Amino acid sequence: MFKHENATNFDDSGRSGLRARIIQALIVLGLIFTALPSFAFQLASGVPQKPEKRAVRANDSKNANALAVVVLAGRMGYIDKTGKFSINPQFYLANEFSEGLAAVDPEYKVTVGEKGEIKPEYKWGYINTSGQYEINPQFETAYSFSEGLACVQFGGLWGYIDKTGKYIINPQFIWASSFSDGLAPVETLEGWGFIDKTGRYIISPQFDDVSPFTEGLAPVKIKGRYGYIDKGGKIVITPQFDEATDFEDGLAQVKLGDKAGYIDKAGRYVINPQFYDAYNFTEGLAEVKEGGKYGYIDKTGRLVINPQFDVADSFVDGLAPVKLGDRWGYIDMKGKYVINPQFHDAKVFFQGFAPVEIAGRYGYIDKTGKYIVNPQFDFAEQFKADVSQFKNGVK
User: Fold this and answer.
1) φ, ψ for residue 33, nearest 5 deg
2) What is the per-residue pLDDT across 66-109, written as a single tens digit (0 to 9) for each?
3) Could you give the C-alpha distances from 60 to 132, 175, 317, in angstroms and in order?
4) In angstroms, what CA-CA distances link 224 with 132, 156, 187, 210?
5) How many helices (H) and strands (E) does the chain have?
6) Contact at 8 Å (CB) between 291 and 307?
């Protein structure tokens, strides 16, 4: 459930600490980046997500100066919305800009240990929008800046730097995440807790698992069950759930056994557990799985769009990508197709664009289905605030 990241803001779909450590081990082995390029880039960009579903929160405001990360011949660079390079392809990994800086890894090196084990070497740094290094490559992992600080790994431990690269909180944690609502989750031998921007513990390490604070509450795991604490560390919703997510718009999706429902901030069920799978609400609707198919409910739990899709993603700008059979299209909030199923892959709209795949190449369409950027990339993610992300298989 904990929101581990690898070079971007932790938009923060929660993941368990154990799962995150397994993922980290796979990264060290170099398996994810070669076998699962799409998921690998989500890991590199700090948004590990369920492979069959890429839910998002809300659309960013449109930005005419937005940049996009693209991959050519295994190198990543940045283009503007006309397709012109603003920063030439030169990075092994590159991430979206946050607070004026982007985390990049210029080179991927592999050494072989005494027993023949593969040892990947990552060195992340930060560039500005001109492509110049503001912080030279030196970190084993680097997350995006959030609330003025970035979480980085050095010497196997995690700490926090400012935009000059100076350590504000020295590397000392087993794992850590970005600041949200003024606090950051950190892991020690005693468990998970929360620190402020001086590194002082506001909530001492004690939990088996956590997620960052949203809307004043954070999910925590105690003795195998999830509940919620406030920013003072007080338990406000008793641990009782098998799974729990962040609050958004006053509701959080929780799971008991194999059934998902929704609670309010008092811990009361607003929608009783009844769905095999469920996601947080965006634009008033949430994707749920019932009878093996996805549909959409409103905040009363009423099915607004009957379950009929094999995969469904969130509504953004009034449209949602859905998959039926082996093709993706886009529906409106009444369930009517606005863009007919035709794509091999499709993602939600950001900045008025949506990445779609045809025959192994990604391009961008507008809300009418017209190509704004012709299919030419090996992988693409949404435009988000300053940039989009494109990623192909790492070579």
Assistant:
1) -70, -25
2) 887 878 888 888 877 777 888 998 999 999 889 999 999 998 88
3) 25, 29, 10
4) 46, 27, 17, 12
5) 3, 38
6) yes
The amino acid sitting at 50 is: K
Does residue 180 contact residue 146 with C-beta atoms inside 8 Å? yes
Percent of the chain with pLDDT over 90: 65
User: 19-37 burial, b for 16+ CB within 10 Å, e for fewer?
Assistant: ebeebbebbeebebbeeeb
Per-residue CA distances from 23 to 18, 30, 101, 224 (Å): 9, 10, 26, 21
All domains in the chain, ordered by first residue: 17-388 (2.140.10)
Is the confidence at residue 144, as pLDDT, over 80? yes
Q: Looking at the chain, how many residues does it have?
A: 395
Contact 276, 289 (CB under 8 A): yes
Residue 303 pLDDT greater than 60, yes or no: yes
The span from the CA of 187 to the CA of 205, in Å, is 7
Q: Which amino acid is at 348?
A: V
- State both tokens at 323: 């998959």
